[in-house]
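Much of our argument rests on the idea that a fold can be written as discrete symbols. In the encoding step, the backbone of a single protein was reduced to a row of integers, each denoting a local shape. We regard such an encoding as a compact summary of how the chain folds. The record that follows shows the chain in one-letter code together with its fold in token form:
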Amino acid sequence: MKTIAKPTQSEIKIKKSQFICRLFPSKTKEESKEIISKISEEYSDATHNCSAYITSNGEGFDDNGEPSGTAGKPMINALRKNDLHNVTAIVTRYFGGIKLGAGGLVRAYGKSVLEAIENSEIIEIEIYDVYRINFGYENIKLIDQEIRNNRLHITNKLFDENVTYNVVSPNNQDIEKIFAKFTSKVKVESVGQEALEKL
């Protein structure tokens, strides 16, 4: 699977209408909806703010007042065509006074997203099983060494009453098994899956 490394923007003009496409990395549909809401508010002076997203827990699109099927659908199709996941696309349109017709709109919105994709840094992502390991501060050296020895990857660290690491294995090793010998010192639990840049 692929996604974009960072937010990107591109702009095209068709028959005096301005189409500004913004792409954002987004892991969940909730995150996508927040982004869409924020951009729609920021560019509330636009004629339309159409959107499409594909994330780990859902996908969707919105024509935002354009004729049904002429904006959101070609946008999500452009994302699918490029095998992009965990991404949100928003096309802000400022109407230039000349109607484009249904076919013209489909082409314009699709092209707008494709141009933004061309300007993006595309990275490979994989779905990894994520485990949370919790342990006392006195065991940091021991746990860090075990992580290095097994070539595990830490995705998040939290230093509170105890230390908590979120870890993944690039080659799908059984993380619970790795830490089984430390049962008195370490608590290990599965916390689901996450799409990350290929390790």
Observations:
- The two ends are 13 Å apart (CA to CA).
